[in-house]
Amino acid sequence: MKYGIAVGLWMVALGACQVATLPQVVDGREEHSASGLFDRGALTVMTRGLSGGKHLEQVLEGPLAEEPVRAAELLETLRQEDVLARARELADEIQYARPHLIGLQQVTQVRLQSPGDAIFGGTRPAEALHLDVLPVLLGELEARGLHYREVARVRNADVELPLRTRGALTFDDVRLTDFDVILARADVEVKEARAGNYVARREVRRRGQEPVELWRGWASVVAKVEGRKYRFVSTHLEPARDEQGLGVQVAQAGELLRGLRGEPLPVVLVGDFNTPANLGLMGAPTYRELLLAGYVDVWTHRPGSTRPRGADLPLAMASWEERLNLVLVRQPVAPGPRRVGPVLAYGVGGALGERFGPWKPELAGVVARLSM
Predict the structure, then answer these.
(1) By CB neighbour count within 10 A (0-12 exposed, 13-18 middle, 19+ buried), where does 348 fall?
(2) Which residue among 8, 54, 168, 367 sits deepest, i.e. has the most Cβ atoms within 10 Å of its Cβ?
(3) What is the distance between the alpha carbons of residues 108 and 213, in angstroms, rounded to a whole number?
(4) What pLDDT sits at residue 116?
């Protein structure tokens, strides 16, 4: 009782939205001590989508003749975004949480070429940088005295499209490149940076054109925080909007899990998994595979979230219970109890008024502070 009241008051005072506690296996009982949250050795991580949520697939999957117009509409939407304001919002979240490690997904670069050659089948890549939020974010953090650096990056989809120009029957090219990036705080020792793309990928086929491959990938590092080492991994899986997308997503998750199977260090796996985390083992296939592989979703282990044994599962779940951005942890397989201490978790990326109460689908990420 005292623990719940104390942590609740502490979080409200700081503006967070939820408290989560991860059970420790100690003589079959859950240990609810919050002292680990305030230890110097506690690890704070963040996963966050960086883009404004624009989807390349929406441009590619329509009629081919309308592609230059759809590309122009996408670029106009991007032009209307205030990059500096978005970077400041992200910097606010980082300044509040002070995470040791940050997994950023949908780190999009937009480059232009004028005049373009893609409409005529040309292959010269666009190079003139038009939009890149990451350098603006790092500059904003430095201006606040927050020292973060990029320690790992993977390039995913890299697609160039013809772009209908304004007021004339001419075409430029717009090139959209997607990355996943890991940032580390200056006091975090990092080594063994790795990155790769999944073999499983979605292909968008267009009549009379070569298929466009939408690559996705992962990045990871070994990080040392207060003398403790972790394998920190960030990823962004394929959305499961249809049967093809679901099949690709499940296959990507399988590749990721196999690659981490022999990791001797504790694993902290974060990212946009695009799999609804609302029904546990009875829910989405990808989320189920992650849990069966020994990973613990820190959000779902908050006090009072465990479903009583024998309780009936609801036929429908409220939309706010569909979480796609996750922080998962896995302790190495070893004899004896596998201890994971208390966890504090809250959502980021939504409007301020939406940060209290249940998880909102608009949220673009999560922060978790945990002791392993």
Answers:
(1) buried
(2) 367
(3) 16
(4) 73
Q: SS3 string of 322-344?
A: CCCEEEEEECCCCCCCCCCCCEE
**Which pLDDT belongs to residue 200?**
97
**HSE on the CB side for 295, CA within 13 Å?**
28
Domain of 289, in residue numbers: 2-7+17-306+321-370
Q: Is residue 315 part of a domain?
A: no
Phi/psi for 365 (5° steps) reads 180, -175
Count of domains forming the chain? 1
In CATH, what number is assigned to the domain containing residue 345? 3.60.10.10
Residue 65 domain flag:
yes
184 within 8 A of 190, measured Cβ to Cβ: yes
- Return the pLDDT at 306: 43
Q: What's the confidence (pLDDT) of residue 203? A: 86
Name the maximum alpha-carbon separation found in the chain.
74
First-last CA distance in the chain: 24
Residues of the chain with pLDDT under 70: 1-41, 52-58, 61-65, 77-81, 120, 166-168, 206-209, 278-282, 301-322, 333-342, 350-363
Model pLDDT, residue 80: 57
What are phi and psi for residue 234, nearest 5 degrees? -125, 140
In a domain, 316, yes or no: no
| Integer Cα distance of 195 and 154 in angstroms | 6
What was the pLDDT predicted at 310?
36
pLDDT of residue 40: 67
Segment 78-100, tens digit of pLDDT = 665 677 888 899 999 999 999 99
Which long-range contacts does 247-251 make (Cβ < 8 Å, 24+ apart)?
248/200, 248/201, 248/202, 249/274, 249/275, 249/286, 250/285, 250/286, 250/289, 251/198, 251/199, 251/200
Position 311 in a domain: no
